[in-house]
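lol ok so funny story. i was supposed to be doing the assay writeup but got distracted and ended up predicting the structure for this chain instead. priorities right. anyway since i did it might as well share w the group, maybe its usefull for someone
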Amino acid sequence: MTKPQFSSIIKQTPHCGVCFAKRRVFVNNRLLLDEAVLEKHAPFLMGETEMDMFSTASAQEINKLMIRYGVKFGIYKNGEFIEQLFPYDAVPRIISRDEFVFLDKGLVQRVDALNCFLADIYSKAQIVSDKVIPEEFIYISKGYLPQCNNIVPPKNVYSHISGIDLVQAKTGEWYILEDNLRVPSGASYPLIARELCRIANPEAFSQNNVTDNRNYSDMLRETMDYVNCGGVNVILTPGRYNAAYFEHSYLAERTGALLAGASQLFVENAVLYVKDYLGINAKVGAVYRRISDEYLDPMTFHADSLIGVPHIMDAYRAGNAAIINAPGNGVADDKGIYYFVPKMIKYYLNEEPVLQNAPTYLPYYEDDLKYTLENIKKLVIKDVSEAGGYGVVFGSELTAEKLAELKETIKREPRRFISQEVIEFIDLDIMEPDGSRIARKADLRAYVLTGKTTRVWPSGLTRFSRIEGSYIVNSSQGGGFKDTWVLSR
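and the output, tada:
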């Protein structure tokens, strides 16, 4: 392949990559690749005649294929279930190999520490005894489940599938925004997008040194097999009216697991079984549940749950079935606990954090409360119990009256909130229907799987806002997604 000219790449490069060199390239205040990184990877990126896969026609073709294959997500709006396309943008995010090695190290470290925390907090709670984390942040968290105390999951793995949300600042540094350890979703979208891109543009990946991301299903199956207690693997779905039902069915097909609803599962003598379409009962060894904790078992949690499996917690407690992810993980991805994750890394692993949190303040502490109230107009305030982009308020967008109300609420309920400095994270190009490109804020959800070892999937879900200037990228808030290319060399 003829090496593209540097000036040509600057004009065409559709992403921001890792920036380890001192010289950086900015266009319209958007960070592009370091010149040194561009020169290094130029032989592995496409030349000027090979950019067809980033055309408007290509994006439209892939979105049409997604509609055809039912690649959708659902939301409830005004009491009505609405299925809609998760808009795909054909211009990928590209991450250099060196950058991915750095991210891999930090993500593995963080998830290992979070697994240590969960094992500790549901047994001796030594981190509380040692006053690293105040007990108030544990025991009043909505994610803490006393029903899970002293339950040791198979192989002592709590968070088998962790979704870690990161952003890259315009200075090049990466920050962790959020840990998702309950039922993180979204891995299927870059998987199917890459698959459909191969259909629409068969030459795209044969001409580029991009790490193949088709191993996610193998990684997931290996994780389920590792903790399996003897029996079949099952993906437990609440049904087609769940927002991520496409993902449930897609991952079941790719991993060879059985897709089952609550009506197909039952527990007898603390053993979990699944009934197939022939009426034959098979023992279940591992359940990848796509149901929230509170609805998982009506005999243990919400008694009125119709989508849970009665007594599944008995099978779990007896060690006869693994539940992926473990019930009770919500205590570790509480936004208030997020503040303490760097301390967890030092406490459990005796290491300095590789990846940093966004600068965060805890109004629970008097000094942080004072700082939050005095600087609220330049901070983002987050309700620790909310998710999906809800409960996020930018002080700069509030009227004087609303700011006063929020201040009073924070003073009255300091444990309920965290405040953060606004990270000016990078804009990535997205393609408009007319072929022009516009800049939009984008984050990255990395998927970290823990079984025999902890591994980071060399891909990820890059989500972007479709609203100019908006920092909210969640699909439930109207965002789109793009493929994430990790270069293989």
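Residues 1-52 have pLDDT under 50 and may be disordered. The two ends are 15 Å apart (CA to CA).
back to the writeup now i swear
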